[in-house]
Design goal:
This protein has a 5-stranded antiparallel sheet. It has one domain: Hotdog Thioesterase (Thiol Ester Dehydrase, Chain A, Roll). It starts with 9 loop residues before the first strand and ends with a helix. It has 132 residues and is of the alpha+beta class. It contains 2 helices and 5 strands; from the N terminus they run βαββββα.
Length: 132
Amino acid sequence: MKASPKVGTVGEVSFVVESKHAIDFADGNMPAVLSTPWLIWFMEHASREAMLPLLEPGESTVGVQVDVQHLAATPLGGRVTCRARVIHSDGTLISFQLEAHDEHERIARGVHKLRVIQVARFAERVQRKLRS
């Protein structure tokens, strides 16, 4: 890393809920709404956005912990903004406070940890598993 992230550093990702982001059990009675796995995906990417300016060539990030409360539904076409704020940095392990809002309310909150990794070393560990 070029530098450790400062507490308060923010990453943000916004998106519009499309059918591919919706629950797969919507039907005539159950409306199509943003699924929790997709919400977490976008929240994790908000954390990554906060880290990208600090990464050296050959570095990347991987999520290592996520704890999210999905508080409210967002229908198809709704715009969601996910925000991740650095709350702690311990070497390569970075902790974030997460929040997501649609146009009406806060829809999620939680915490996330990611680790900065060396891509080559990570890829080698994955390759060892493939060879076993």
